[in-house]
Amino acid sequence: MTTLALASLSRRLAVLSLACLTTSAALAQNSSYEPQRGQAGKDVIWIPTPDETVTRMLQMVEVKPNDRVFDLGSGDGKIAIAAAREFGARATGLEYNPDMVGLSNRRAQEAGVADKVQFRQADIFQADFSSATVVTMYLLPELNLRLRPLLFKMTPGTRVVSHSFTMGDWAPDETARAGYGDVYMWHIPANASGSWKLSGAGLPDTSLTLAQRYQVVSGDAIFGELRASLVRPRISGAQISFGLRDPKGQLWQFEGQVAGARITGTATRPGQAGVPFEARRNGEASPIAATTAAAEQEASQIAASLTR
Ligand SMILES: C[S@@+](CC[C@H](N)C(=O)[O-])C[C@H]1O[C@@H](n2cnc3c(N)ncnc32)[C@H](O)[C@@H]1O
Q1: Atom of ligand 1 at shortest distance to CA of 71?
Q2: What is the pLDDT of residue 307?
Q3: Under a CB-based contact definition with an 8 Å cutoff, are residues 244 and 228 in contact?
Q4: Is a pLDDT exceeding 80 seen at residue 277?
Q5: Once rounded to an integer, what is the mean pLDDT over residues 26-33?
Q6: CA angle, corner 302, sides to 296 and 305, nearest 5?
Q7: Which domain holds residue 156?
Q8: Which protein residue's CA is at the shortest distance from atom 12 of ligand 1?
Q9: Is residue 253 part of a domain?
Q10: Which of 187, 202, 230 is the last residue of a domain?
Q11: What is the pTM of this model?
Q12: Do residues 171 and 245 both lie within one domain?
């Protein structure tokens, strides 16, 4: 190696060691990092959810050890840590502020749940949280609205819980008031909209037409000349249930699972054993939630009204 090359290498090493020193100094400094309530965040400030509200949120979504919980904007990590410590779940916190990510990792270590919890520095609008079975959040109304189209792409049955803020016109499945804020919970519904051909259950071939907005569903059945509305139709996650009065006037109760273009389940008449049924969708489903563009527009209107 020439003298010139050696000199250049040692200069580069010196720069590298200086960078290492700076990094370890920053790490040492960060290990005593103390967040300030109300400090700025990328899209919303940091305020921690009170302990009793955290517990209530996780109870409402019925967190189990096999759940995969994602807290969007995880702050000091308390929701993800509680999901692991109190409910045995695996949990991930997505947080934009790297100092908060470091703090959360240290708190997970202290709580003895570092094997179950991870925190990632990420922007919640860019990150992939599609593997979640439970999503928790304490953000802002307009941020919830911007997340709504992403939530509707998740597996039906995924549970979502929000501290303090709603999801526009998507009505919650359950609410509570715990601590200083309200809590809202939703199940992501399957999309059962469209035209279906129902068979089995000993019924004549039946056409069903279902309309759906979020988790609210209604519909009609047509048996030849007879048209009858579905009785108390309901969707919760992938589960659908409805009553149907057949041409003989008997009220059947249908309970099934929606899986893409197919519903399978059991139909029961009073006093009789259940029999299997199947329905297949003809054509396409319709959207059951506002489009991304409409949600963005609604979010901007809310943000503007809050700053007025
Ligand atoms: C109100 S705090 C809630 C913290 C925690 N989830 C809780 O309930 O205790 C919101 C957090 O979101 C973080 N945040 C803001 N915008 C974000 C973004 N785009 N991506 C990730 N985190 C964000 C903030 O830094 C803050 O820590």
Answers
A1: 6
A2: 67
A3: yes
A4: yes
A5: 62
A6: 140
A7: 51-187
A8: 73
A9: yes
A10: 187
A11: 0.88
A12: no
